[in-house]
Structures are given as structure tokens and as C-alpha cells.
Task: inverse folding
């Protein structure tokens, strides 16, 4: 039945990977992911899973080793953060192009410079177009659940893609939270042993990571894109199965008090819980506020978004990254283009919040909703609370 | 049935572009990148085989009569054979000539 424990979320993510009986972990430590790396290493050292821990000299090597291991048919986990993820960037699209279901635990952290170890989403956003499935967890329980789900989704023969599970650095990774940790028998029932589509072995002829001449490159990319777009069906199927077995419901976009909402906030990651409190407070004051929490970032749930925004007059989209010189935060520009062709669509305002660990409190979300209710901002997007 | 050189449509692409037979790299006819090709003047050739040794593609082969020729499916026209040939028996000519 699982056991309710108090556990640091970074440690819990490594424990969840252990429940999935990974074969190989290739990880380079970086704040605030270090506890994940250390704990995966402990788990292997203590013989709790029959696995190898590859000590690598960089994140570039970590993901390269992960790809090599996954090519042999191993179930592979890696983890990183910030500069480490950027350093992996050359290898990220190769993992997805080779259709290797690696699971990556990302402790989201701002990227340099100025150098900053605190939380925002500026690490994953530049990496969003590399062909990985991206989950965004809101709390420790979701971190554990999504880590286990990630293996199941990625390894599905209809998907065969790597999955990254995003958890906010410090705000999630370093918090001790009450978590229901599934037991081994439950996870074994949910996640069957990995049977790879193909594996490098002297007895079987297979070339992986081949050259793609101009005559085939476009077809190869189309095939990868279709696989990623179609994976949303499997994500939803796996989440339904999870709900049936574990009783916790997962949706691509989770609505909170939006039935009669006039203004709805949009969040991704750990700030959803703070925003919920802000919505409750506003409701007490008679403001018809609501909240949409995005849990699946790639493939982007376009249809679910269109359904979720029905009846909402203003969407206050929050982003935790800047697209420098672009149309606004990455989440907002996705939402704007998703709704552009809709005959009836909400007004959309974009606030960029919580950069580099800047605290965003309940009152800030309440203020954002009140200002959004008045409609357009004086600029296309606003870095909320910026001085000057 | 002869296998296709490459998939016609995206639906035919194997997941991850994996190839399940050996030696398939030889089907990449990289000679199509060539701008110049080597021409041997056999009357100057002393059959030393320097062109064969230096060709970085390994596409120069010895013919039955002891002279040499390049397999133009793979020759990229780098000109190293012509440069190394000390009796100057190899000329590089433009593809379009």
C-alpha cells in the first residue's frame, strides 16, 4: 500500500528511480541536484539495485554515457541542473533522435550569468526543442510519481523517447515533504521490466546513431516529431493507469476553481501551490479567480488548453524564464499561439516571475490577478517586481 | 527483393534511424559532394601506388593491368592523389568539364 514518509524531495526522486530498478546511473553532481547524484550513488553502492553507477567527468559525458548504456538495452537514469543541462545540450537531441528512453531528473535552476544557483526555469526552456518529453512536478509526491511514470511512458513501444522530470531546485529538491512512497511490489506491477526495441549486442546486427543525408534527414525529423506529438496519448493512458492503481490523478493541465473564473493564473512547477492559496484568498474577497497548472510541457497539450480556458476572460500567464528579445516568456508565447486560431479566446497577459530564486508570495499572485483583471499591460510582458 | 537505398517516406523510417544489417554505410555515395575529379594519364604512371596509399577515402584501387583508378561513388575530389603523384600522372578536372 505504500508508506507515508517524511523525506527530502531530491532523495525521494532517487528513491523513486531505485523502485524502478534502473540498470545504470550516469550522473555528474551540480547544485541543487547534488543530493540526487549522491543518493543514486549510495543506492548503487549499498547494492539496493543491481546497477552500475558511472562516475563521469562532466554532464556532456553523463548524457553520452547514458546514451551508450541505453543503447545496450539498459534502463538508465541521469540527473542534472542549470549549467549542467546546458552543457548536455549537444547530446540532448541525439538521445531523442536515437529513441532511447532515458529518464532525467532535472533540479531546475537559473543559468549564468550573473552566476546564480537558485530556482527558475531558464535551464530547461532553451532545451525545450530537443525532442524530450517534459514533465513539471508541483510537489514531492508528484516528483516521486512522475519519476516512476517517466520510465513507463518513455519505454512504451509507441513512444521510445527520453523523458525529463522537472522539479524546482531548492523549492522542491531541498524540502522535506510528506510523501507516500510506493512499495516495490506496487511499482513492479505498474512498471514491467524494460524490453528494448533494439540493443547493441555482438549477436544482433544494429547500427544506432547513423548518418542522415539530405535525402533522409527531413523524413527522420518528421518521424521523431510524430513520435513526440503522439506520445501525449500514452502519457494520458499511463496517468489513468496510475490513478487506477495509486489513486492520485494526473492531468496535462490541472484546473483549480476555474468553473466560473473570470481571471485565471497559469503556473508551471512548485508555484502552483502558492497560487492556489492566492486563488482561495481572492475568492474569499469575491474575486472570481482560478488557476491552470501545466504538468506536461512537451508535448504541449494544445487541445486540453483550449478546453481548459473556456469561459475565462483573462489569462494571467506566469513564466519563470525570459525569451530575450522574444514575444514574452516561453509558456506565454506557447499559449498565445495555441489560442490564436480560436474564435473566442481570453485576453492574455504575461508576468515573468521568480527569476533566479526571487520569492513570489501569495500577495504577489493576488496582485497579479487584480492587475490582469484590468486587461492589457503597458508592455508585451512584465518582469514582475523588477526595481527601477 | 533488393532493399531500398533509403526509406521513401517518413513512415518507413525505422525508430531512431536504426539499421539492422551490416555494411550499410557503403550505400552512402559521398562522392556526390565532389567538385573536381582525378584523371589518370597512364602513359606517365609508373605504377608506384602512391595514390592508392594516400587516398584518405580508400577509394583508389589497382586495375588488372597494374594502373590505378578512383571509385567515383566515394571520391570526394580532395586532390591528395594528384598532389602526391610525383610523375604528375593525375590531373584534377572540374566536374562540369
Result:
Amino acid at each position: 500500500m505504500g508508506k507515508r514518509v517524511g523525506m527530502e524531495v531530491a532523495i525521494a526522486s532517487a528513491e523513486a528511480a531505485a523502485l524502478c530498478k534502473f540498470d545504470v546511473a550516469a550522473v555528474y553532481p551540480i547544485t541543487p541536484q547534488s543530493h540526487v547524484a549522491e543518493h543514486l550513488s549510495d543506492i548503487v553502492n549499498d547494492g539496493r539495485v543491481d546497477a552500475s553507477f558511472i562516475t563521469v567527468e562532466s554532464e556532456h559525458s553523463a548524457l553520452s554515457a547514458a546514451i551508450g548504456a541505453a543503447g545496450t538495452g539498459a534502463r538508465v537514469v541521469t540527473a542534472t541542473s542549470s549549467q549542467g543541462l546546458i552543457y548536455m545540450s549537444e547530446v540532448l537531441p541525439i538521445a531523442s533522435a536515437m529513441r532511447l528512453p532515458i529518464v532525467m531528473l532535472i533540479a531546475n535552476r537559473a543559468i549564468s550569468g550573473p552566476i546564480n544557483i537558485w530556482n527558475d526555469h531558464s535551464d530547461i526552456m532553451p532545451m525545450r526543442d530537443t525532442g524530450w518529453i517534459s514533465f513539471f512536478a508541483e510537489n514531492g509526491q508528484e516528483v516521486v510519481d512522475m519519476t516512476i511514470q517517466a520510465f513507463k511512458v518513455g519505454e512504451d513501444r509507441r513512444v521510445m523517447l527520453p523523458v525529463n522530470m522537472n522539479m524546482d531546485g531548492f523549492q522542491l529538491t531541498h524540502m522535506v515533504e510528506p510523501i507516500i512512497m510506493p512499495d516495490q511490489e506496487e511499482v513492479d506491477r505498474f512498471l514491467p521490466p524494460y524490453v528494448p526495441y533494439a540493443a547493441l549486442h555482438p549477436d544482433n546486427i544494429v547500427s544506432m546513431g547513423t548518418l542522415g543525408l539530405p535525402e533522409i534527414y527531413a523524413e527522420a525529423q518528421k518521424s521523431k516529431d510524430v513520435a513526440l506529438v503522439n506520445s501525449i496519448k500514452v502519457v494520458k493512458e499511463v496517468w489513468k493507469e496510475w490513478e487506477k492503481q495509486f489513486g492520485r490523478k494526473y492531468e496535462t493541465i490541472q484546473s483549480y476553481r476555474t468553473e466560473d473564473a473570470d481571471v485565471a493564473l497559469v503556473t508551471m512547477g512548485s508555484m502552483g501551490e502558492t497560487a492556489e492559496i492566492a486563488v482561495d484568498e481572492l475568492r474569499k474577497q469575491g474575486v472570481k479567480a482560478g488557476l491552470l497548472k501545466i504538468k506536461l510541457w512537451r508535448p504541449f497539450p494544445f487541445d486540453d488548453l483550449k478546453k481548459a480556458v473556456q469561459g475565462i476572460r483573462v489569462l494571467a500567464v506566469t513564466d519563470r524564464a525570459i525569451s530575450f528579445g522574444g514575444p514574452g516568456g516561453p509558456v506565454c508565447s506557447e499559449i498565445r499561439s495555441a489560442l490564436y486560431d480560436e474564435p473566442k479566446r481570453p485576453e492574455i497577459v504575461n508576468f515573468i516571475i521568480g527569476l533566479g530564486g526571487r520569492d513570489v508570495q501569495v500577495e504577489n499572485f493576488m496582485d497579479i490577478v487584480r492587475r490582469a483583471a484590468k486587461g492589457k499591460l503597458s508592455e508585451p510582458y512584465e518582469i514582475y517586481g523588477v526595481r527601477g | 527483393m533488393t532493399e531500398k537505398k533509403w526509406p521513401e517516406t517518413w513512415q518507413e523510417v525505422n525508430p531512431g534511424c536504426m539499421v539492422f544489417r551490416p555494411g550499410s554505410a557503403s550505400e552512402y555515395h559521398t562522392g556526390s559532394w565532389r567538385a573536381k575529379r582525378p584523371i589518370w594519364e597512364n602513359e606517365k604512371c609508373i605504377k608506384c601506388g602512391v595514390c592508392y596509399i594516400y587516398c584518405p577515402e580508400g577509394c583508389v584501387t589497382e586495375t588488372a593491368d597494374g594502373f590505378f583508378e578512383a571509385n567515383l561513388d566515394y571520391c570526394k575530389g580532395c586532390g591528395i592523389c594528384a598532389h602526391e603523384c610525383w610523375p604528375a600522372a593525375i590531373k584534377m578536372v572540374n566536374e562540369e568539364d
Observations:
- The mean pLDDT of chain B is 92.
- The beta strands of chain B are 36-40, 60-62, 68-70, 90-94.
